[in-house]
Amino acid sequence: MSTRPIYLGHVNIYVRDVERAKAWYEDLLGLQTYEYRPGRAAFLSADREQSHEVALMGLGPEAPLQQKGQVGLNHMAWRLKTLDDLKEFYRRLKEKGVPIQAINDHGISLGIYLSDPDGNGVEVYYELPRKEWPREDHVFTRELVGSGRFPGPWDEEVTVGMMGRAG
């Protein structure tokens, strides 16, 4: 294929209460709202050079939530620049009492998994620079995880392996 996308531009997710979801993404992830339509939609971004990376579309309080194992988006992943940034994010989650679903060592990255107020999956992660990857293919091979690449305040909570979630 000669024409292909250059990157994923944004994710559009449904929420029950757009105000509540907007506040969560602004407060916890530090996203900037570029456009807000009260009761209907919010367009937020971590990259100030982009119009939005996530669009929140309000459906109302009676909208059914996704069920575990339902076909659809598993999670969106927000990459942090450094391992220290991930450590600070982890501390913020603990301070705010935000439930952490999993912390997974993927060998080349460490991801913290949580859910937004509507149950949409969110991963916040740090990934090693490519030159530090131990191999070029099959980078999520089980023998590469759990080798102490990501020491931090989460050491007692890290799950080695994938736990059904792919990075």
Notes on the structure:
By secondary structure, this protein is α/β, with parallel strands linked by helices. The protein folds into 2 domains: 1-61, Roll (2,3-Dihydroxybiphenyl 1,2-Dioxygenase, domain 1); 75-161, 2,3-Dihydroxybiphenyl 1,2-Dioxygenase, domain 1, CATH 3.10.180. Helix content is 16%, strand content 28%. The chain is built from 2 helices and 9 strands. The chain has helices at residues 18-29, 83-96; strands at residues 11-15, 32-37, 41-45, 54-58, 76-80, 102-105, 109-115, 121-127, 159-160. The strands form 2 sheets. A 5-stranded mixed sheet has the order 5-8-7-6-9. Strands 1-4-3-2 form a 4-stranded mixed sheet, with helices on one face. β3 (41-45) and β4 (54-58) form a beta hairpin. The longest helix has 14 residues, at 83-96. The relative contact order is 0.17.
CATH superfamily of the largest domain: 2,3-Dihydroxybiphenyl 1,2-Dioxygenase, domain 1
How would you state the average pLDDT, rounded? 89
**Number of domain modules:** 2
| Count of helical stretches | 2
**Share in β-strands:** 25-35%
- Give the overall form: globular
How many strand elements?
9
CATH domain class of the largest domain: Alpha Beta
Distance between the termini: 25 Å
- The CATH topology annotation of the largest domain reads as 2,3-Dihydroxybiphenyl 1,2-Dioxygenase, domain 1
Helix content: 10-25%
The main pleated sheet reads as: 5 strands, mixed
- Structural class from helices and strands? alpha/beta
Radius of gyration: 17 Å
> Which CATH architecture of the largest domain would you pick?
Roll
Strand arrangement in the largest pleated sheet: 5-8-7-6-9
Uncertain spans, ≥5 residues at pLDDT below 50?
163-167
Order of helices and strands: EHEEEEHEEEE
